[in-house]
Write the structure tokens for this entry.
Amino acid sequence: MALDKIGIAKRIAQELKDGYYVNLGIGIPTLVANYIPEGINVEFQSENGVLGMGPFPFDGEEDADLINAGKQTITTLDGAVFFDSANSFAMIRGKHVQLTVLGAMEVSEQGDIANWKIPGKMVKGMGGAMDLVASADNIIVAMMHTNKAGESKLLKSCSLPLTGVKCVKKIVTNLAVLEVTNEGFKLLERAPGVSVEEVQNATQGELIIKGDIPEMNL
Amino acid sequence: MINKEVKSIDEAIKGVQSNMTFMLGGFGLCGIPENCIEALSNSGINGLTCISNNAGVDDFGLGLLLQKRQIKKMISSYVGENAEFERQMLSGELEVDLIPQGSLAERCRAGGAGIPAFYTPAGYGTEVAEGKEVREFNGQPHILESALEADFAFVKAWKGDTAGNLIYKGTARNFNPMMAMAGKITVAEVEHLVPAGELDPASIHTPGIFVQRIIQGSNYEKRIEQRTVRTKD
């Protein structure tokens, strides 16, 4: 069965390594913080200026001066620190953040990503996404394999305006875990009960299938 | 000691004119100069270019200036929370320059630091890079981004002293320090204004040299955009 958003978040959480500083984007990526594996210590950076982000506050304890990049009220953990936006992006551009997880509308087989603009429709802006994808060595995209119309979001080339080029390394969808290689999307794992054929049918870009493809272990 | 305190909001925004370029601190509605925005809204000036990470919401923050059509151009990174903004942009009434958030922060910092331009990898290969110089460093392509400056910068801090030194609270710091540096005239409004000497010099975030006027703010609403809580179980 295809994963839900929580399943995607749980699978991505397995990519966390002890000592990582991690930036989580809005949407599915935010959920990753709920499934940190035991024995792993990571710190979450939010680009509006906080490192050491904790869970949402209890009702009545929210503070207007304490939010994440999604403008949600948050708390901080021991060792947390606040900083300005220039310093925040120095951490990001300077590669001091080890893992970036973000959502996408489209990803190409070259690792290009589009996630900020639908011409003539949505006008929201890129926020910090372009800075994040341009500099991070380790970018995981969390998204559904297909869009609401059932069309593949893993493409030969992106049709929407790009956020960054040749930057995505790994993709975790409701159907599969894939690695972006020079030859295309390499299928690493299938969601439990999802066949290779189902992944193939939902992937427009080049899909590389080598040997037996294991199921995700969630 | 140079005393930067002004006693009224009219004095704080004295000299603002139509067609000027302003910087306004804040991320979403967090750390925005509420008092100055209200005064600008009441001033009747228009044709403004506003540099601000976001554009407020329909009825608060920069949304107040948008409602009255005072803004000609916005330079921002993310404007998704404002329906009136989207309407004015799609209809062509409002000119919008969307730039990556880190580049926006650095362009303000550069403006205040006397750095005319810098190279960054952010935006390479995207429409942000159109018309900009590309240069490779260490095998990676970068684009040239120019510094930003403003006729006035309006910033909000938690505490300040009469010398213009500022301390921010929590994530309300965000763009305020860089914008304070990049304003020809920087106006700081604070929740707590104290006499010079009361703040620990080692704890100051923005040195007073970057601030020309400081005012004790009042009636802060500090609206929360996305109130998100968990329940005790």
